[in-house]
Specification:
By secondary structure, this protein is α+β, with helices and mostly antiparallel strands. The protein has helices spanning 5-10, 54-64, 99-105, 121-133, 139-148, and strands spanning 16-22, 32-39, 41-51, 72-75, 87-90, 95-98, 106-107, 113-116. Helices cover 31% and strands 29% of the residues.
Length: 151
């Protein structure tokens, strides 16, 4: 039996990896992994998409904003055991959403999952740093992260 997404979302109290199909993406797009962590209070999350399109993302930022490349965090199976290819966390696309807003973006097919709850502390630090260093993230979000995360 699948656990309802609202129950899983309410259980998020630290960094974790989510897996879902985002209703705001193209309807033919595949589901993605996202890093998520609470910010401000228990009802708001920061999410960043993970992608295995490493070179295309790097090339995109080389063309559009070279400084943003430093906010791409390359990870592999050594960092998160479920990965089957090199992947990046795109900290340039970090978003703050309430759990209610995120619930509305989750397509129920395939079912929403929390794929991993044990995120290494070095990776938590890198993610926070990547978001704060990004030239594409609004200052208010950077301030929230600096203030509210112990990393």
């Amino acid at each position: 039996m699948d656990i309802p997404s609202e129950v899983l979302l309410q259980s998020i109290n630290d960094f974790c990896i989510l897996f879902f199909k985002d209703t705001t993406h193209n309807k033919n797009a595949h589901p993605h992994f996202y890093i998520a962590f609470p910010i401000r209070d228990d009802q708001n999350l920061i999410i960043c998409i993970l992608t295995s399109q490493v070179e295309s993302q790097k090339n995109y930022y080389r063309r559009t904003n070279p400084k943003a490349i430093r906010s791409l965090i390359q990870i592999s199976r050594n960092d998160l055991s479920f990965l089957n290819k090199d992947t990046i966390i795109d900290c340039n696309r970090a978003e703050m959403l309430s759990k209610e807003e995120l619930k509305k973006r989750i397509n129920s097919n395939p079912p929403f999952q929390i794929k991993e709850r044990k995120i290494p502390s070095y990776l938590k630090k890198e993610i926070c740093s990547g978001i704060v260093q990004s030239p594409l993230i609004p200052p208010y979000l950077k301030k929230l992260i600096k203030r509210k995360t112990p990393y």
